[in-house]
């Protein structure tokens, strides 16, 4: 079954709108793991609008204490340091997640909206990927379903790619005629990735409406889901929301 990694950014976003520690990000991470999620994801950004460096340390410790649980840190290795944000690489090398997903976001981006251009960024990513892999951290690259670009991922040393699912999710929401061609492009990208010997993750705006189709993507190993799952948790409770997504991934 495809693994579910719950992204906790939005829990931290609510906490940061007041002083204090409510909602408690670590306690909510624990609820997700107790409900059966196979991992936790965070995407610290240099402006620290949601996940802060302290959260990354605390969640790394939570995941380390549990057998078989994956901790995934996402972010741009070229962004920061900024004020008291140390930059992605120092944070990752200090906290040693199981996986680091590199994402080409600029500092002021509202959210992730494109994958890497490896023709442009490949050479400067290579030493970063080597450093992460030398620290026993699996490296995934956030990518659009572009076969030529994905073809460059093994050359820079990546273990996996994470397919950017934003346009697929938007097409499902808008019931657009493009759904078929977009999903077919993702399937072709997944097949190409498999032939290259790399693993396949996916994420961005996946939800209970668009996931039943997306979970059938050949070879899909992991989805990271935050925004929609947190919104669903407002209605269902966090443990029920995690279970609803796990059942969806099982095909129930
Ligand atoms: C990499 C990705 O797909 C992002 O969706 C992400 O991790 C979410 O970031 P925000 O929560 O800051 O929008
Ligand atoms: N990598 C995608 C992720 O972690 C969560 O994205 P979203 O579900 O918050 O859009």
UniProtKB/TrEMBL annotation:
Alphabetical UniProt keywords: Cytoplasm, Pyridoxine biosynthesis, Transferase
Q: Which SUPFAM superfamilies match?
A: Pyridoxine 5'-phosphate synthase
Q: Describe its partners and assembly state.
A: Homooctamer; tetramer of dimers.
This chain's function reads: Catalyzes the complicated ring closure reaction between the two acyclic compounds 1-deoxy-D-xylulose-5-phosphate (DXP) and 3-amino-2-oxopropyl phosphate (1-amino-acetone-3-phosphate or AAP) to form pyridoxine 5'-phosphate (PNP) and inorganic phosphate.
The UniProt GO MF terms for this protein read: pyridoxine 5'-phosphate synthase activity
Q: Can you tell me which family this protein belongs to?
A: Belongs to the PNP synthase family.
Q: Which residues cross the membrane?
A: none
Keyword NAD belongs to the record: no
Catalytic residues per the record? 43, 74, 204
Full protein name: Pyridoxine 5'-phosphate synthase
InterPro entries on file:
Aldolase_TIM, PyrdxlP_synth_PdxJ, Pyridoxine-5'_phos_synth
Named in its record, the pathway it takes part in is:
Cofactor biosynthesis; pyridoxine 5'-phosphate biosynthesis; pyridoxine 5'-phosphate from D-erythrose 4-phosphate: step 5/5
Tell me the superkingdom of the source: Bacteria
Q: Where in the cell is it found?
A: Cytoplasm
**Keyword Transferase attached:** yes
Record's Pfam families? PdxJ
- Primary site of residence: cytoplasm
């Amino acid at each position: 079954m495809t693994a579910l990694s719950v992204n906790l950014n939005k829990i931290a976003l609510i906490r940061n709108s007041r002083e204090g520690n409510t909602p408690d990000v670590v306690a909510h991470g624990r609820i997700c793991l107790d409900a059966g999620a196979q991992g936790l994801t965070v995407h610290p950004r240099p402006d620290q609008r949601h996940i802060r460096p302290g959260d990354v340390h605390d969640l790394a410790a939570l995941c380390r204490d549990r057998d078989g649980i994956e901790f995934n840190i996402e972010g741009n290795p070229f962004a920061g340091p900024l004020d008291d944000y140390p930059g992605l690489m120092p944070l990752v090398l200090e906290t040693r997640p199981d996986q680091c997903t590199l994402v080409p976001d600029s500092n002021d981006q509202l959210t992730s909206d494109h994958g890497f251009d490896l023709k442009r960024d490949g050479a400067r990513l290579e030493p970063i990927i080597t450093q992460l892999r030398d620290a026993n951290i699996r490296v995934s690259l956030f990518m659009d379903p572009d076969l030529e670009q994905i073809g460059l991922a093994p050359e820079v040393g990546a273990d996996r790619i994470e397919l950017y699912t934003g346009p697929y999710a938007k097409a499902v929401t808008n019931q657009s005629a493009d759904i078929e061609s977009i999903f077919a492009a993702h399937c072709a990208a997944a097949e190409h990735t498999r032939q290259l010997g790399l693993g396949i993750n996916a994420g961005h705006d996946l939800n209970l409406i668009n996931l039943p189709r997306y979970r059938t993507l050949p070879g899909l190993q992991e989805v990271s889901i935050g925004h929609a799952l947190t919104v669903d948790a407002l209605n269902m409770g966090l443990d029920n929301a995690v279970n609803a997504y796990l059942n969806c991934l099982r095909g129930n």
